[in-house]
Specification:
Blueprint (H helix, E strand, L loop, with lengths): L18 H21 L4 H5 L10 H20 L6 H7 L7 H6 L5 H19 L10 E3 L5 E3 H30 L2
Antiparallel strand pairs: 1-2
Helix pairs in contact: 1-6, 1-7, 3-6, 3-7
Length: about 180
């Protein structure tokens, strides 16, 4: 993903995107750049570090989760449907995390995670370019039997990433403490 640092701090028009999508992508871009800054130099050992081996998440798990969440929302919003059992199985264990994720999501270099995140984001942006701004305001049933529009759903994608970036920062602090004891 190539993001121009000169426009990173501007919620403004983005090439190839309509006005509302430009605002959304501006926020998504900033969120992603800050996430990448947190993780770009991590080793495989650091990506796999588990502070609590019975219940914790590794940085690698969280990066895989971010990719899985975005892929899930591509299906849910672009195709306007719930995920199939097969799609859920394909996205797991990254989507749900937990024990299987602790067992399976490990041993990957940062480049693997970054490539996955970039490829999925590329698909998102390319699809956004084909949609009218009105699509963002379409409402469908969502959580708690309430309606949500596509704008909110995509806000949730990067809001979820923000939350997990906070977890990544905490994991890095715990890792530094444990490695210096």
């Amino acid at each position: 993903m190539s993001i121009d640092i000169k426009t990173l701090f501007l919620i403004d028009q983005k090439d190839g995107l309509n006005e509302e999508f430009s605002k959304l992508v501006s926020m998504m871009n900033y969120t992603r750049v800050m996430t990448l800054e947190e993780v770009k130099k991590l080793t495989v050992e650091e990506l796999d570090f588990l502070y609590d081996k019975g219940d914790g998440n590794s940085v690698g798990m969280l990066l895989s989760h971010m990719a899985a969440v975005e892929k899930a929302y591509q299906i849910e919003t672009f195709q306007n449907r719930e995920l199939t059992e097969e799609e859920i199985n394909d996205l797991n264990p990254a989507l749900e995390l937990g024990n299987k994720a602790r067992e399976q999501i490990k041993g990957h270099s940062i480049e693997i995670y970054l490539e996955e995140l970039a490829n999925i984001r590329h698909q998102t942006i390319e699809t956004f370019k084909t949609l009218p701004d009105e699509w963002l305001f379409l409402q469908t049933p969502f959580w708690f039997d309430e309606s949500a529009n596509n704008y909110f759903k995509w806000f949730h994608v990067f809001e979820d990433e923000l939350n997990h970036r906070g977890q990544i920062r905490i994991i890095k602090k715990m890792m530094a403490k444990q490695l210096h004891v």
